[in-house]
């Protein structure tokens, strides 16, 4: 039996400079007793001001500090706080793990969900699923929810003030969207929305990549200067809305499977962000697919210009033994991993070979071309 075509999305997405400070009317439509969860750093940067603003607009605000790991245990802990305080809205304020945790809490409580990212570092904000980890930080599971968020608030001034590394990480995560969606379509695979890809989902994934090629460099330069520009607006939308809808309605494949495979080993690879790991995973997927010389070089130049890690040395994987590399390959090709959406079977050894090849190709490009990084040398 063929799968039904399916398209899923959040109820409402709003983007603009200074949005958090004029969001009361949007949130008021959902309830009056929000629980705001953010980590300690985000509370200092923007959380206290946001909570005070809502209190001044007659919201009864509960404040909770997120412990930093998106785990089943953390969802349970904050769920109990929300139940004790009779919160009717859960507001996740922060990065991907904070947002993923807030989704689980909202479902457990039966509350409305507001997602308020403080960086455009990944495509978690619009997705109806969470990536959960163990309390030790190893990949645990994809958690799928019955519904999406009720409201996504993207304050582009907050994002312009965020570290540039976060925006570049989001660009890397978003660049994987169309590559993985095309692989999933070719294999007639299942999307993260648990259906067959629609033309709409595939078109969004393609538009995501087009916007990135057109605006990424200028958006990064805007972020360096902490200013909101049309280019920054475009990339915030690409990193968040286009990538989020694109991956969930288009499907994931090798790039994210390899990202998850990294949790099979210990080491400095875990000092990288989600998007930085996905950048290398995307290169590996391109190699597995037998991408042409010209196209592969285009991606290599793009990643190197943004300072993304696409060699074994840059990802610290050169520190691993061959057996440890094979463990990554084994985890990336587990039966329930998104590697199953590749249009051909991939073995653990093929993953290792492609990782080594991707690194070699990047080194060769560096040795034969002049790379002009967009950011100044550290």
TrEMBL record:
Involved pathway(s): Polyol metabolism; glycerol fermentation; glycerone phosphate from glycerol (oxidative route): step 1/2
Entry keywords, A to Z: Metal-binding, NAD, Oxidoreductase, Zinc
Entry binding sites for NAD(+): 39, 96-100, 118-121, 129, 133
Binding site for glycerol: 123, 173, 256, 274
Cofactor dependence: Zn(2+)
Cofactor note: Binds 1 zinc ion per subunit.
Family matches, as Gene3D superfamilies: 3.40.50.1970, Dehydroquinate synthase-like - alpha domain
Annotated EC: 1.1.1.6
GO terms for MF: glycerol dehydrogenase (NAD+) activity; metal ion binding
Similarity comment: family membership: Belongs to the iron-containing alcohol dehydrogenase family.
Residues covered by the Alcohol dehydrogenase iron-type/glycerol dehydrogenase GldA domain: 10-156
Enzyme class per UniProt: oxidoreductase
Catalysed reactions, as listed in the record: glycerol + NAD(+) = dihydroxyacetone + NADH + H(+)
Protein name from the UniProt record: Glycerol dehydrogenase
Binding site for Zn(2+): 274
GO cellular component, one term: cytosol
């Amino acid at each position: 039996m063929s799968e039904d075509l399916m398209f899923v999305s959040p109820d409402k997405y709003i983007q603009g400079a200074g949005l958090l400070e004029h969001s009361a009317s949007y949130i008021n439509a959902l309830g009056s007793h929000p629980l705001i969860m953010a980590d300690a750093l985000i509370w200092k940067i923007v959380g206290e001001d946001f909570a005070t603003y809502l209190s001044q607009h007659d919201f009864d605000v509960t404040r909770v500090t997120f412990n930093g790991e998106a785990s089943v245990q953390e969802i349970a802990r904050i769920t109990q706080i929300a139940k004790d305080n009779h919160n009717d809205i859960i507001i996740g304020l922060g990065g991907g793990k904070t947002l993923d945790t807030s989704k689980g809490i909202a479902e457990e409580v039966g509350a409305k969900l507001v997602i308020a990212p403080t960086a455009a570092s990944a495509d978690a904000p619009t997705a109806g699923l969470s990536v959960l980890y163990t309390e030790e930080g190893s990949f645990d599971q994809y958690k799928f929810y019955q519904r999406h968020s009720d409201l996504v608030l993207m304050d582009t001034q907050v994002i312009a003030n965020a570290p540039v590394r976060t925006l570049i990480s989001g660009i890397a995560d978003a660049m994987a969207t169309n590559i993985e969606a095309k692989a999933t379509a070719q294999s007639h695979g299942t999307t993260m929305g648990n259906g067959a890809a629609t033309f709409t989902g595939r078109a969004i994934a393609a538009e995501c990549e087009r916007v990135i090629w057109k605006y990424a460099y200028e958006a990064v330069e805007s972020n360096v200067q902490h200013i909101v520009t049309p280019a920054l607006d475009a990339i915030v939308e690409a990193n968040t809305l286009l990538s989020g809808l694109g991956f969930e309605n288009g499907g994931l494949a090798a790039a994210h499977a390899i990202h998850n495979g990294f949790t099979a080993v210990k080491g400095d690879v875990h000092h990288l962000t989600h998007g930085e790991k996905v950048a290398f995973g995307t290169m590996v997927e391109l190699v597995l697919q037998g991408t042409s010389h010209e196209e592969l070089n285009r991606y290599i130049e793009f990643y190197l210009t943004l300072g993304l890690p696409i060699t074994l040395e840059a990802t610290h994987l050169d520190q691993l033994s061959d057996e440890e590399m094979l463990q990554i390959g084994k985890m990336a090709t587990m039966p329930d991993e998104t590697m199953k959406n590749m249009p051909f079977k991939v073995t653990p050894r093929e993953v290792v070979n492609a990782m080594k090849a991707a690194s070699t190709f990047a080194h060769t490009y560096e040795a034969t071309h002049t790379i002009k990084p967009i950011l100044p040398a550290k």
